[in-house]
Request: fold
Amino acid sequence: MDNIWILSGIVLAMLGIERLVITAAIKHPLGRRLIRRLPILHPNGISLLRIPMGAVSIVLAARGQWPAAILWFAFWMITDLTDGTIARHCDLATETGKWLDPLSDKCMYFPALLYFAFGSNVSTRLEPATVIAFLLIDTLGQMSRLVSRKKAANLFGKTKTALVTILLSAIALNQIDPSWIITPQFVHVFSLACVILAFLSCYCKVIPDIWYANSFTLANFLCGLGAIWYAFQDNSIISFVLVFLGQFFDLFDGRMARKYGSTKRGAFFDDVADATSFGIAIGCLIFFSLAKPETTIPSGAALAIAAFYVACLIYRLYRFLHPTKVMPKGVFQGLPSPAGALLAGSAVLLSRQFSAPAVSLAAAALVVITSFLMVSNIPYRHFGQSIWPGMPKTIKLLLFILLIMFAVFAITHRNYRFPFIGWTFGISLLYLAFGTYRKRHYPIPGPEGDSGQDANDDSPQSDDDQDDR
Reply:
């Protein structure tokens, strides 16, 4: 364990030194001139240097030199941050860099993926079928840059690269000192998340722009169907995680509709998806959680509470399309349905962690309160339009990475389920208390409902999320 902490500390120190050095260089005129004069320090020069380095790290690993392999791999993956920073601040961004940079990343982690799937000196393996699927999809994504105008990495692609790097590093560290965290189930779920992100990254590059909004709406709908299935299988944590992931897709579809357009029935499809994920799926969780014998809540009462929640949410969605009160742009009439779903769902799941009937009664009361808040006239700021856009791009990416990892831990390790549900409950309460719209503090002009779909304000293809090269 000491070796793991030492290696992790060295990697973090390398990252810190890189950030300090490169930040100082780009801020000083002499540093910028030096970078421009030396082609090896150009973003494309760094990317070219990185191409063979993944194979070198695997040669070291095959010889049993795992610490050296880990540090070598980490050093060259850190340079992926270096070239992007130089491209932004030294006017060295090129069209070539938009496909060369992700190509060099693939040359870094493709050999490691193959080695951990088929190598002989490996104690923790990746499933070969999952690795092959990932390699095929990621290769198609790279090849699409030859014909698509969308050459730069999108949010899904950046997150995928970060998660693959974390997964490979964790498996490599596990070769030195096995950990209870790196279980076969953890590795499998983590690698599946990478496959899904690779598919989404590729999909966003090749589809027509007008398909974006409904594609994310469909993904949210499928998450809802999966959540309902797992709720009936009494696997509440996976059901809730799917609803949680569905909110990311719901975060994107409105921005896509406004930026690229959508189909005539896009708003209706969005409401159907939201009703499935945030309504019926959460309603199932409410019923199956409250109808347990230890809660002392009769099954009929649990069904009535769940039905009341679903009815209020569906009315909430209907009222979004047919508002009864004019609201400023970026402000909802009543508690937004995604926030209501997180609050009600996390409340009843928390109640399952305790056997006290009073806790279940409190959760049932909170579900009823949440239902009333959704159909109320209390103005709530839209997270996607009012809060998320103000975050720095790096913070957005970091949050996306951490939330996906947190979800993977919750699925694969029981020890992390209570923290995940508790964290979700906590942020839901914070939004409930501080997400209300106060005109004197946050003026937003214009009426609500200027977009075809649910007014969410972020996009995996937005300028904020594009690769800077």
Confidence is low (pLDDT under 50) at residues 440-459, 462-469. The beta strands are 331-333, 379-381. The CA atoms of residues 111 and 212 lie 32 Å apart.
